[in-house]
Design brief:
Length: 507
Amino acid sequence: MGLLFLALFLMLVSADSADEAAFIGVNIGTALSDMPDPTQVVALLKAQQIRHIRLYDADRAMLLALANTGIRVVISVPNEQLLGIGQSNATAANWVSRNILPYVPATNITAIAVGSEVLTALPNAAPILVSAMNFIHSALVASKLDSRIKVSTPHSSSVILDSFPPSQAFFNRSWDPVMVPLLKFLQSTNSYFMLNVYPYYDYVRSNGAIALDYALFRPLLPTKEAVDHNTLLHYTNVFDAVVDAAYFAMSDLNFTNVPITVTESGWPSKGDSSEPDATLDNANTYNSNLIRHVLNNTGTPKHPGIAVSTYIYELYNEDLRSGPTSEKNWGLFDSNGVPVYTLHLTGSGTVLANDTANQTYCVAKESADKKMLQAALDWACGPGKVDCSALLQGQPCYEPDNVFSHASYAFDAYYHRMAMGDGTCNFNGVATITTTDPSHGSCIFPGSGGRKGTFGNTTSLAPSFNSTASASQSLLSHSRDIYTNFVLVVAVLWIAVCFNDIQSFCS
């Protein structure tokens, strides 16, 4: 499981070189009972080279944590704030003043999503949706930020009627008084149409009319491809068909030059007994194939070669979401940063996620001083908040019972908890990175994808040495102030060194 993100590394380094190139981003929901701290979230994003994200609000701590990372951020006006902003230019200006101006340019905010699926989720607010977008844009113009921050609003694909064949698609006519000025706004501001595309739901609701392979981007025989009899375009997957249906629906209203960005797409990895197709394998297949499809820049049958950048839904499983089990299981990661499954990207016959050459682990140096290892070990299992229970007598990682082995387990646990970030395998020089899996017997190290090392929801950074070591047996069996012990050990070592070499070290 542990290498979901050799694949994610390749998937997400894609698109800072040219604005025209398609990119894959990730949505970040927060309905978790154990939501990681913003610094942990950003550490994960940086370690996995995720360069594009979408937030469902404008959380101050998150925006501060994203500063100076270069990560491109879409922030959102929540639906509950939409009425106020859509009815008052001053309220919109105040929103921009509070949620944009304090953070740019350090935080790379590139777009504002005004509401989410407003036409279908909050139809009473539909009449003021375009006003809200205009007011937000006017505030950006006043701050000279309109050229760098686009304004749009995500739509459910259900606003499109008669979506297959795509050439016959059109928007629900009852929304024309909103959709026409909305598309004029997007066109005049060089923005893009935000669309949420969920082939999982299309498949589930089709009562067998849509084949699972067609929903999952699996290869189809030519005779199994869907053909638009009006255009003779062939469709090999639901995703392209829905995107093209949106293009045709816009064309039906005489808008032919508004690009589409897919703001949500994914597949659940777990479901209730009534959701048999919400599985790890299907989620892995869909997201892996989606990533390859987007980054290949193949576009769609209607617009070949035109990038359709897409944000995967979503970074974390959200256990607090209501509804069936599938609603809680769209994430790529658990809250502790462990991949839910290993994405695989096939290219030239190679399954990249099975190539573990770049998998790294953090272990104790064989030449390290035992007292320094013990100090790092004590810190890791205390202030470092590593779960060292696997090191207790009788537990899988107790043997061999020595400080080197215990420290290696804890160093690796901390290193992977911090998403293998820079400086998180140091521990005052007693740790080193290796590509050799240190797991042994039933002792599975966290970097191997095992879940024996679990973490709390706070990130405790090591003071000056980023250390995480597993606790010794004496540490585990006695309740005491671990950090005080660390300070005492360092003090003793300092004194000893001074006495041994006063001229060279202490003068």
